[in-house]
Amino acid sequence: MPIAKSERLMNLALCLMNTKRPLSKRELRTSIEAYREAGSAGEQVSEDAFNRMFERDKDDLRELGLVIDVVENPLDGELGYLARRDVNRLPEIHLDAEEAAALSLAAGVWEQARLAGAASGALQKLRAAGSLAEDGGEGRTTLQPRVPARDAAFEPLLVAARDRRPVAFDYRKSGAAQAEPRTVEPWALEFWHGHWYLAGWDRDRSDVRVFRLSRIVGRVRSKGGQFSVPVPDHVDVRETVARFAGEGATEQARVRVRRRAAFPVRAKALTAAPAPDDAEWDELTIPYGHGLAADLVEFGPDVVVVEPAELRAEVIARLRAVAGGTDAGTSGISENEVGE
């Protein structure tokens, strides 16, 4: 059976790091099984296949951070290769309590993903080396934070953002009756208020957009080609989501909420009191910012906007759009692609 590339790279790295003198291509070829098997249709083909494979593997190891020295033999001019341990040795890792806790939390993101085993293995190696305490750091309690990654779109989007690969998916905006296709260049993912969000360049709208992963319908599909827009040095997904979800809003809205209903709206309340003319309702004052209308629409008849008038009109328009099977909102992130 063919030897996996990862195993071949590991064998080459071990050979280069465990030699006391530079090894020539010929010596490496006889020492590593995968190279001995390269090309079997004839000597010339075999030699060419080995040379191409070796050059690719050498470049891959250098991209991974391995420093490979090339030394010319003064007697015959043949090139030799080695990776000195003193140059390639990583410094000891020392983590304080806060760093250890952050690392454990980051590894917890992968609890529901395929990399859960790799993350757990990395923590075990740090513990074995004494860089991480068994409890993940001092001051830990039995109450440990968890960052779930249960959305099916999480892993393919994370990989696409890492590889700078465009994707396509169907997305249902808040208040919309049906999902619509999107083609996106994914930039970054961030967890905020119990949900994962994606920020990226929406090719269909030629603008930056933020999407909540739980509203992605169906499978995330990879697209060919490269990004058409440069990725910003810093993508603050949380700030964008917070701004359009009403966080830090300076305006206020007055709404009525049916008793024992719409608890997420109640959690935002600045003030709350029984409605003066109806025992079945409470009257709340809540922050008013972009996206609030779409938030309120999700609670249907359990929430009624008292003021301001523009918010009341927007909520009514969205409810009518949903009832009629049409879309609400016409432009920009004010479509509330980031709302709850």
Secondary structure blueprint with pairings:
Layout: H1 5-17, E1 23-24, H2 25-31, H3 33-36, H4 43-63, E2 69-72, E3 79-82, H5 85-88, H6 97-108, H7 116-128, H8 154-163, E4 167-171, E5 180-192, E6 195-202, E7 207-212, E8 216-222, H9 237-244, E9 251-258, H10 263-267, E10 271-274, E11 281-288, H11 292-297, E12 303-307, H12 309-323
Antiparallel strand pairs: 1-3, 2-3, 4-5, 4-8, 5-6, 6-7, 9-11, 9-12, 10-11
Structure overview:
It is a single chain. It contains 12 helices and 12 strands. It is of the alpha+beta class. It has a 5-stranded antiparallel β-sheet with strand order 7-6-5-4-8. The protein has a 4-stranded antiparallel β-sheet with strand order 10-11-9-12. Strand 4 (167-171) and strand 5 (180-192) form a beta hairpin. Helix 1 (5-17) packs across helix 4 and helix 6 runs antiparallel to helix 7. The longest helix has 21 residues, at 43-63. Mean pLDDT is 78; it is low at 40-45, 136-143 and 327-340.
Provide a brief overview of the structure.
By secondary structure, the protein is an alpha+beta fold.
